[in-house]
Amino acid sequence: MQATGIIVEYNPFHNGHLYHLHETRKLTGADVVVAVMSGNFLQRGEPALLPKEERTKMALAAGVDLVIELPYAFATQQADVFANGAISLLHALFVQDICFGSESGSIEEFHTLLEKKATHQHTLQQIIKAKMKEGISYPTALSFALEQLSTNGVDVSLPNNILGMHYIEAIRQQQSSIVPRTIQRHGSNYHDETFQHNIASATSVRKTLLTNDLSLSSIEQVIPTATANLLDSYISSHGIIHHWEHYFSSLKYALLTRTKEELASIYEAEEGLENRLLAHITEASSFTSFMEAIKTKRYTWTRLQRLCLHILTNTTKKQMAQAHQEKLVPYIRILGMNQQGQRYLSLMKKKIELPLLANTKAFSHPLLELDKKASAVYTSIHPEPIRSAMLKRELTLHPIRYNEIEKAFSH
Amino acid sequence: MQATGIIVEYNPFHNGHLYHLHETRKLTGADVVVAVMSGNFLQRGEPALLPKEERTKMALAAGVDLVIELPYAFATQQADVFANGAISLLHALFVQDICFGSESGSIEEFHTLLEKKATHQHTLQQIIKAKMKEGISYPTALSFALEQLSTNGVDVSLPNNILGMHYIEAIRQQQSSIVPRTIQRHGSNYHDETFQHNIASATSVRKTLLTNDLSLSSIEQVIPTATANLLDSYISSHGIIHHWEHYFSSLKYALLTRTKEELASIYEAEEGLENRLLAHITEASSFTSFMEAIKTKRYTWTRLQRLCLHILTNTTKKQMAQAHQEKLVPYIRILGMNQQGQRYLSLMKKKIELPLLANTKAFSHPLLELDKKASAVYTSIHPEPIRSAMLKRELTLHPIRYNEIEKAFSH
Q1: Interface membership of A384 toward B (CB under 8 Å)
Q2: What is the pLDDT of residue B406?
Q3: What does DSSP assign to residue B338?
Q4: Is A50 helix (H, G, I), strand (E, B) or coil?
C-alpha cells in the first residue's frame, strides 16, 4: 500500500485543505493519506478554534485515512522543531512521500534553495547575526538572509514556504527515504483575508466567523458541509470557538501568582522577557491589548504568543528538555482513522517500531504529560460540569472511527 | 491616650461585633480602639466575602478608630501563628490591653488553663501524639488534650476560646506588657446558624445571604445599616459576594498545570497530600464536591482549605519561610482610621519603630509580596476591566479616612 503524509493544523478544515488533499492523491496516487495534525494548541502559540477531536472528524470526513497527533512540545514551536517532529512521525509510519503546499508548486526550487543554503552557511549565519544585532527577531532575520540566496526562487517571506523548506531539511537530517513533493496553493494567499472564489485562508475563515458573531452563513461558501456541521454542533452546545481572549484571565492569574524566578524557568522566557510581561500584565484588560503592549521589533507577536502559551500551560525549560530527550516523537498517538487507515495500520503493525497509542491513559512520557496539561488548559474555559466531562473524554479518547461518525457528516 | 486592641475578620461586620466593640470600650475605657483585621483571605483558608477595603469601612463606620492589616502569611494560619502576628502588631502599636470574646467572659479561666498547660506540657504532648497516631488532626488532638486539663474551665472545643488562649500565649512569648481581657459573647453560639434576637454568627450571616440570593432583607436585622449599605453597593456593582466556589476554576487550573514536585513545594502540602488532591481534581466539578472527596479524619476541612488557598496563591514553603524570617510582622499596613485614630498615630509616631505603610507600592518585603499576590488572586474573579481597576486600586490604596466616607454610612 502506497502511503503519503501531509502535515496539517486544520484550524478549521476548509476548501483549500480539500483541494490540497485531492491534488495530493492525484500527484502521488496514494492508497492511504496520513495526516500529522497539531493537537489543541498550534504553531503560532494559539488555541485551535475546536478541540483536536472535532478537527479529526473534519479530516476524516474529507477523506484523510489516518490522523496522528503532533504533540504539544513539537506543535507549538518554530518551524524547524515543528517540522522535525512531524517528519519523524511520518517516517515512523513508513509513508513513501509527503506533499505540502507552496506558492510555486515546484519542488526543484526548494532543492536549489537548500543547496545554496548549505553552500553559503557561513554567510547566512553572519547576515542573521548582524540582523539580530539590529534588534530583528530570528525568524525575520532568517527570512531576510534566505531572501539574499533565493532570488528568482522560493519566496521565503511566506510561512508555508519556510515550513516546506524545513520539512525537506528534517527528512535529510533524519536520513529518511521520504520523498518530498509540493503542490501549488490555490485561490488565496496566506495573508489574504477576503474570500476569493470558494477558497480562503484559515486565518480569514476564523476572522470572518468571529466578526460575524459565529454565524456559519458567513463562511459556508469556503468550508465543506462536514466542517460546517461540526462547527455548528460545537458552537450550539458550547457557545464559543476557542480563542486566546478566553484564556487571558488564566494567563493573567498565572503571571500574577508566580515569582520572576518561576517565570524565568518557563520555556522561551529568555533575556528577561518575564520582566516585560510582568510590567504590563496588571493593567492589561485583554489579550490583544497585552500583546500590543509587550511586542517589539525583536519579539514578534508569534514569539510572544508562544511564551504566553507556555506560561499558561506552565511548561518549563526543564520539562521541555525532558519531552525532547529522544529528539523525535517516541510514540504514535492515533486520533482517528477510516477503514483504509485501519487496514494500513494492521498491515504495518509489525514494521512500526514506536508504540501505537489508542488513548493517553496507559502510556507515560514527559512529552505526553505536556499534552495532558495542554488538554487540561484547553478545556478549562468551559463551565462545570462540561469542563470535567470534556477533559475526561479527551484523556480517555479512543481513535475516532469514520463509520461511527458517518452520520454527522451526511449532507 | 489609652489604646485597646481587638483582633477581627469582620466577615462581615455584624451586630455581634458591634456589641463586642461597645463592651470593649465599657470594660477598658479606651480612648482608641485599634483593630487588627485579616486582609482578603481568612483564617479558615477562605476568601472574605468583601475586599478588605469594604470591611475596613464597616469597621470605621461602627466606631473602630484604627484598622491595621494582618498579612496573608499570618491571617491564613492555624491559631498560634495567627495570634502571634496579630499580637505583634498590637504590641508595636503600644496598645495597653486587648479584649477578645469568649464563652464565659472570665479571663481567670484562661490563666488557669495556661498554668495547667505549662505544668502538664509533657502529658499534653503525649496525648496529642497518641491521638494523631489514631489519624486525628492536630487541632482536634490539641483540643482533646486540653479538654482533659480544662474540666470546669475554658471550653476548648470552641474556636474562639482556642484563639483567646493563643493570644495570651503570644503576649507571654513576646514578653509584651499587653493586658489580656475578655468579654462574654452574646446572643448566639459560634456554630449557631439560626438567628436569635438581633445577633447572629458571621457564618450564619453569610449562609443566609447565600441561600437567599444575596437578598439583604434576609440579614438586615442582624447587621448595622452601614454593613447593609456597603454590602448592597458591592453586590449591586459586582453581582457577587466572594466565595470559594468562584475560585474553584482557578484552583483546578492551578492543580492541573503543576507537577507533583511543584505542588509538593507549596506551603502545607505535607505527607503527600498533593497526590490526594491530584487524584480527585480532574473529575471534581465544584469546590464543595472536591473538598468532600479529599477530606479525611486526619485532614480537616479547614486544614485542606488552607492548602487549597496556598495552591491558589502559589505560596511555597520557601516563600512562607522568607515571609516569616522576622517571626513577627515587620511593618504596619494601615487600612483605615478616623480622626481619633489619626491623632493616636501622630502622638505615637516617634515611639513606633516599625514602618507605617500607607500603601503597598513603596515598600518591599517577602511578607508584602504574598499580600500583593493575594490581592491579584482575590480580584481575579471579576471580569475585565473591573478586575484590573480593582487590583490597581487595592495595590495603591491609601488608608480609608472616616470623614471621606461618612456619606456612605449615613442612615
Answers
A1: yes
A2: 61
A3: -
A4: coil
**Do residue B373 and residue A283 have CB atoms under 8 angstroms apart?**
no
DSSP secondary structure letter of residue A10:
-
Residue of A nearest to B280 (CA): A388
Assess contact for A278 and A83: CB atoms under 8 A: no
% of chain A surpassing 90 pLDDT:
80
Question: Which chain A residues have a beta carbon less than 8 Å from that of B384?
Answer: 248-249, 285-286
Whether A176 shows a pLDDT value over 80: the answer reads yes
pLDDT at position A410 is: 47
Asked if pLDDT for residue A408 goes beyond 90, the answer is no
The reply to whether A236 touches chain B by the CB within 8 Å rule is no
Q: Would you place residue A187 in the very low, low, confident or very high pLDDT band (cuts 50, 70, 90)?
A: low
| pLDDT, position A259 | 92
Q: Is B253 on the interface with A (CB under 8 A)?
A: yes
Among the listed residues A259, A256, A373, the one whose alpha carbon sits nearest the alpha carbon of residue A320: A373
Cβ distance A253 to B256 less than 8 Å, yes or no, reads no
- Chain A residues in contact with B253 by the CB 8 A cut-off are 250, 253, 376-377, 380
Closest-CA residue in chain A for B387? A285
B381: closest chain A residue by CA: A249
Grid cell in block for residue B120: 502538664
How far apart (Å, rounded) are the C-alpha atoms in residues A94 and B104?
A: 82
d(CA A336, CA A69): 9
* pLDDT tens, residue by residue, B40-66: 999 999 999 999 999 999 999 999 999
User: What are the cell numbers at B110?
Assistant: 484562661
A270, HSE (Cβ side, Cα atoms, 13 Å): 9
Q: What is the per-residue pLDDT for A19?
A: 93
The SS3 assignment for A212 reads coil
Q: Which of A250, A257, A369 sits opposite B377 (nearest CB)?
A: A257
pLDDT score, position B193: 52
pLDDT of residue A261: 94
Supply A51's cell numbers. Answer: 478541540
DSSP assignments along B140-187, one per residue: HHHHHHHHHH-TTS--TTSHHHHHHHHHHHHHHHTT--PEEEEEE--S
Taking 60 as the threshold, does the pLDDT of residue A276 lie above it?
yes
Per-residue pLDDT at B136: 82
Q: Mean pLDDT for chain A?
A: 92
Contact (CB, 8 A) for A374 and A40: yes
Q: Does A317 touch chain B (CB under 8 A)?
A: no
A229 has binding-site annotation: no
With a threshold of 0.85, tell me whether the complex ipTM lies above it: yes
Residue A200: CA count within 13 A, CB half-sphere: 22
Query: Can you spell out the DSSP letters for A249-275?
Result: HHHHHHHHTS-HHHHHTBTT--TTHHH
Q: How far apart are CA B145 and CA B78, in angstroms?
A: 17
What pLDDT, in 10s, does the model give residues A319-342?
Answer: 999 999 988 999 999 999 999 999
Q: Does the annotation place A275 within a ligand binding site?
A: no
The DSSP symbol for B397 reads: P
Domains of chain B by start residue, with CATH: 3-112+165-169+181-242+329-409 (3.40.50.620), 244-322 (no CATH)
